[in-house]
Design goal:
With about 900 residues, the chain is α+β, with helices and mostly antiparallel strands. The protein is about 50% helix and about 20% strand. Strand 23 and strand 24 form a beta hairpin. The longest helix is centred in the middle third of the chain and has 32 residues.
Amino acid sequence: MMKESRRTLLFGIYSFLLIAILGLFTFFKFLKPGFFTISPDNIQNIIISVLFLVLFGLMVNELFHWKKQGKRSDAFDLVLLGFIFITIYLATFDPMNSVIGAFGIFIIFGAYELREYEVLNKLLVITAVTYNVIFFAGLINSILHEFGLLIVEGDKNWIIRDTAFSFAIWIILILGFALFGRKYIVVLRFMSPEYLTMFLYIFSWLAVRGLSFIWQESINEDQQRNLIYLALFLTNWFVYSISGPVLDLMLGIKRVPKQIKNIESQLEKESDPKVKQELEQKKKQYIGLQELVEEVSKNVKITDRVKVGFAQYPILNAMAYGAFFDKRIAIISKDINEIPRDELKGVVAHELHHAKGLDTLILSIISSVQLVIFWLLKWPATYYDYVFGGDQPFEIWVFILINLGITLVIYVFIRILEGRADMRTKQSGYANELAKGLYNLEGFYSSGREIGLDTMLLSEEKLIEYNRVENYSTTAQYLDRNMLNPKPLTLLSNLMNSHPPSYLRILAMYDEENQIKPARESILPFLLMAKGYRMKFARNLKSAHKSYRIMANRKFKSMFGIKDYANFLNDLNKKEVFELMLGKTYLHVDSLNFIVGIGELKEIRINDEVCEPYSYLFSPKEITAPSIDKEINEIEEIIRFNKNETSTKRETYTLQPETTKLIELDFGAIYQLSKSQNARLVTVSIDPQLYEKLDDVKDETVSIKKRYRFFRRYLKKFVLYYFVDEKNELVKKKYRYKIKFNLNSIQHAEGKQIFLQERGTLQLLHLREVQKINGNYDYILKCETETGNARSYPLKEIIVKKDEFGLQFHNPSEFFQDEIKILHFLKERHTRTTIYLKKAINSVETGYISSLVVDSENAKPNSFLVLNNIHGKKIEIPLRKIETLVFSVDTIGIMNKSKMSLAERFMQKILYWTKPDQVYVP
C-alpha cells in the first residue's frame, strides 16, 4: 500500500489523463456534425459512445475508490480492460486491434505485478511483447489512415498491422527460446513441421514474387497467384518428405541404434570402472527400448522398418512422424525408465499404428486439399500470403475466423486418426497398457490440463513427492468425474485440441462393445454438451468405467507404494474438509441414478478407492408438511417436528458426491427469498407420487434421455418448498427455485469473531449481538473492534458471505498488521489452511500454522510462518512468498456496500445469481 500523498498525486495524474481522453474524443468525435444522428448507418457510433461514457464513469469511480480506500477493488482489472478496449475501438473502429491492444496493455501491468513469479512473469512478458507489437503496428496503420495514407480506392489498407500479426508466432518462439531455451518449444508442444512449413512458405512466396518482378511483362496477377500456390503445394510435400530428420534436429531426438553404437565406442576407450558401469546401464536401457519396439512391432504386424528415437526432456510424450518411406517414432521423457515397461508397450503400439496407418501422409493430403480449395476460391493460403498477396476478398479477422473453422474441422479428422490408432492398439492386445499410459500422461500434465501449458515444466525446481501423489490422485478423480458427467466448460476447452480427451480414450480402451468408434469419438465433445446425452453415455459405458476404476486404483497404489488409500487419506485428516457439513439436513438429488430424498448427513466415509475416495452416509428424516385446511396454525408445530432429532430413522444409506446434489435445509431458519423478501423455511414436501413415478423412470426399457427428461419434470411437479414470510403468509416455491442464503448463519456467528473484508484485506471483528428488527426478519450486527470501538452494520447495508474465506497478501502495506492478526487467528484456532505461493511448482501447501516470526524492523521481507503440513513436514514459508490464504471457518464475513465500487457491487450481484446460498446481497 503506497503512502496517501503519493496516492493522491497519482490519482490527480490518472484523472487528468482520463479527462484528456474524454476531451479529445469530445473534440474529434462527439462534436462532429451528425456523429449522434439517429440512423441505421450511425447506430454503431451511438452504441460505442454510450459504452465509452459508461466505462469512463466506472473508471472514474474505481480511481476514486482506490484513492479513498488505498486498494483497488476486485472489479478494477475488469473495468480497466473494458475501458482500454472501448477507448481504442472508439479511436480506430478496428475490433481486432482493440482486442489485441486491450490485452496487450493490460498484460504489461500483469507482468509487473507478477514479477516475483519466475516462470509466469516471463510468459507474460512474451505475451505482452507479442500483443503490443501487433497493437502498435495497428495504431500506426490507423494514424496513417487519418492522414489519408494507405487508403486504396476508398478502402483502408492494414498492411503494417497484418504483417505484425503474421509474424507473431515467430516472436513467441524466438522470445520463448531466448528466455527458456529449447525446452520451451517442447513444453509448448510445437513439435509439428507446420512451423518449418510456414517459414519455407515465406521463401516460396518471395521466390515467386521475385521472379514475377523480373518477368513482370510476361506474368499477370492470376499467373502469379497460380505460381504461388504451386510453390506452396510443392513446399508442403517437400517439408513432409524431410520432416523426419528435421524434427530430430529441432528436438534433439537421438536414434536408438546410433546411441548404442556410440556407447559401445565409448566403452572401448573408457578405463574408469564407475563410468563403464554407467555406460553399460545406459546401453542396457537403449537395448531394452529397441527390443520392446521390436516385440510390439510383431504384435502390431508392421512390416516396414520404423526408426526409433529418444529425446531427453523433463516431460512425458511420444510421437510418430516422418514420411511414408521414412517412418519414425520417438519417446520423450526425462529418463528411458521413467515410463513403466507395460505402459510403454501401449504407447509404442499406438505410435506404430500411426506409422502403419500412414497418418502423417493423410495429414499432408488434408493440408494439400485445403491449399487446392483455397486456390480454386482465390483465397490467400496463409497469413503471409494474405498480407503480401495484394487485394484480398475479406478483412483479416474474417480470415482468422475461417482458419479457426478449418482448424476445427481438421482436428476432427486428426481425432479420427487418433481414435483409429487407439482402436488398433486395443485390437493388438495393448488396451490396458495404453489406458495406464494415458492416465500416467494425464497425471504428469495435471496442473496444465485445462490451459494446455504446464508452467512447472519450465521451472528449475523439482516437484515434491507428496505433491506428485496429489497430482495423480486428483487426476484419477478428474478422469472419473468426466467419465460420469463432463462439465460443458471442460468439453469446450477440448474443442481446439488435436487429441480426444483422455477420459474418452481410456473408456474406449475398456469398451467391450466398441460403442466409441473413432468417428464418433472425434465429435463426442460436441455431443456431450447435452445433459441427456451425457447421462446416456455414462449409463451405456458403466462396465468400461468400472474397469477404469480398477486400473487407476491399482496403478496409483503401485506407483506410490500405498497399500490402503483410505488409511492414507485418514492420515491426512481429509475428513476435516467436510466438517462443516456434518449433522445438517439436506434434500439430496442424484440425477444419474434417479434418487431423491431428505436426510441428515451423519458421516463422511473414506474409501480405499482413489477414483471415489468419499461417500456420504445419510440417515433418512421424516418430514411433515402443512395440511390444506390449517396451514398457518400448525406452522410452529411442523417446524418443531422437522427439527426434532427423533424424527431421524436409524437406518443409513450411502450416496456418492460425484453424482449427488445437496441442498441444505434448516427448518425454522430465515432465508433470503428475494432481494426484498426474507422468510422462514417451514418444510419441504415430496409428494408420494414422485416415488411412484421414479419406479417408472428406472425402467431400463425406456431410453435414458427420455427418463432424465421425465425425472426433471417430476422434480418440478412433486417437490415443494414451504416458507412463511414477514406477513405470516405461506409462500410456496417449486424445486427449480434456488434456495438462497440462510440468515441463521448470521445468528450462529453471535459471540464469535467475524471477518470484515475491506480495503483488500480481512479485519477481525467481534460480533457482540445480532439485534432483530422488523419482526425478527431483519437484523443489525453490533460489532466491536480489538480496541473496543463499537460498530453497527444494518443487514441491508452489507454483503454477507460464509464458510470459505480467502486473504490475499500484498507487498509492504499499512495493512500488514491485519494480515498478521489473521495468521494468529488461524494459528490459535488450529485451522486447516491452504497457502498459495508465488511459484510455478510446489505452489500449494496445506496444513496448520504452528508459529509466526515477525521482524519488527523489516517486517514483510524478513517475517515468516512455520506450517505443519498435512504430510507431516514442517515448512518455513516467508510471508513475502505468499499469494493467498484460503480457509474454512464456521463464521461469517461481511462487506460494507458503501465502501465498494460500483463495478464491485455488480460483481457481487453476479455471485449472488450463481451461488445464492453462499452470499447475501440485499
